[in-house]
Specification:
Helix content is 5%, strand content 53%. It has 407 residues and is mostly beta strands. The protein has a single domain, classed as Porin (Beta Barrel). The radius of gyration is 22 Å and the shape is globular. 28% of the residues are buried. About 1% of the residues have low confidence.
Length: 407
Amino acid sequence: MKQQALLFFGFFALAQLGIPASSAKAGEWDLSGYVAFEARYFPNAAFFPDQQDNQISPSLVAEPEVVYEWGRRTDRLTFIPFVRWAPDSDRRTHVDIREANWLHEGKGWDLVVGFDRVFWGVTESRHLVDIINQFDGVEDIDDEDKLGQPMVNFRWQADWGTLSAFVLPGFRERSFLDADARLRGPLAIDHDNATYDSGAKEAHVDFALRWSHTVGDWDIGVSHFHGTSREPRLNLTPRPGGQLVLVPHYDAIDQTGLDVQWTMEAWLWKLEAMSRSGHGDRFFASVAGFEYTLYQIFETVYDLGLLAEYQYDGRDKVGAPLTSGDGDLFLGTRLALNDIQSTEGLVGMIVDRSSQATLFFIEVERRVGANWKAELEGRLSFNAKNDVLLAGVRDDDFFTFRLSRFF
């Protein structure tokens, strides 16, 4: 957190150099964001005796966004902190800087300096090429919540596509749940003693490059990343007294990625693929599938999307982090009511073809009035005892209700 704070103040000091003295009159401020109440319900008792056994876990969340623009909106400062207070979990109670950056837009190019969040990819069930940001592991198990990443990002736009170059000074370790928390798995994770391939550890500077372009009905992205893996290996390590814990180790890797989406009338054909070295032998992984939308079903305004994807991963079983995405099949359906409340729902499952372990999930959201939104999420597992990753959380099915107020 100390390094994060120093980087934050350093980036904003740099950004201040670009603000003219008259900007106090010419600039514009904007405040938005949300606050939320969240309750997570576990229908089953905890499987391990040292886990908390409370069925309801409440928390409060806030994510404000402060934006200041000047220079005819060619310059912008953005600050987005994130705060969660969870009375039953010290580690889930946390503060993070999701974004804190200066954006300058030129003619055909722009520059971002500071903490930012970047998303790459097109598939639904797994984001193989999305590697810039670290995931916030105390928020959820779906790898959708990202920690802010310090960066310098130069983007050049031309007729032949968009080229983005990244310098990433400062590594963010993945956050993990408390040793007694639900969803923590069979062994505690000793996040305080993480190890690295690089002698620079968190201070290692990473680099990334991405080219993206739209050609007719095709959206194409090609990327390369060189630096510290965001995906740690969890090494089984004995502690004094005989206790076994999992210690994260962050390898130095090179990863080349490809993401492609082809739009053909009601069809979206999707592919993400990557090749990575640094986790044992170089390996290849991919996610491929489609989304087909049935518009105005049964003579209503409702749209129904049908989704299917196949996950492949050829990584080593010993020298690489464990993954559940090897030979898994994802099936899902998305329903949009197209009403004034923007009611939407997604239901799906991921099935491991070898173990028959199945992860079922549901996500529903609906606006309430002009400023409120209600959300319900659920994660359920079946035949999980046969799967090396799901077995430790097989009794940690949960439902999350969230009520958010936007401003």
